[in-house]
Amino acid sequence: QVQLVESGGGLVQAGGSLRLSCAASGSIFSTSAMGWYRQAPGKQRELVARITRGGSTNYADSVKGRFTISRDNVGNMVYLQMNSLKPEDTAVYYCNLVLYSAYDFWGQGTQVTVSS
């Protein structure tokens, strides 16, 4: 069983910053990657940023240069530093964890709202 708990969402003005955190617990020894996805109203869920067990990262083109994903040394926390936020970043952000490169687990989501 895997549990993911996100925190750090909120309301911010355009140009501002937020930092999202995700705490993973349970049977996470074989985690292959963790990441952040987002879903805006009326849109599909999309990848924002991802970090693999080996430390490789990838980002959506829309957030490159503004967002940074990181994790702690233990491997049970993942963070998303979001700078220069734009109204189009408004969405529910979900933490994702992948086990054995095959099984996806999701957090409950945290709302990020960027006002213009």
Word description of this protein:
This protein has no helices and 11 strands. It has 116 residues and is mainly β.
Question: Secondary-structure blueprint of this entry?
Answer:
Layout: E1 2-7, E2 10-13, E3 18-26, E4 31-39, E5 46-52, E6 57-59, E7 67-71, E8 77-82, E9 91-99, E10 103-106, E11 110-115
Low-confidence stretches: none
| Secondary structure: number of strands | 11
Judged by helices, strands and strand pairing, the structural class is: mainly beta
User: How much beta, percentage-wise?
Assistant: over 45%
Largest pleated sheet: 7 strands, mixed
Give me the strand/helix succession: EEEEEEEEEEE
Helical coverage, percent range: under 10%
Question: How would you describe this structure in keywords?
Answer:
single chain; 116 residues; mainly beta; seven-stranded mixed sheet; 0% helix; globular
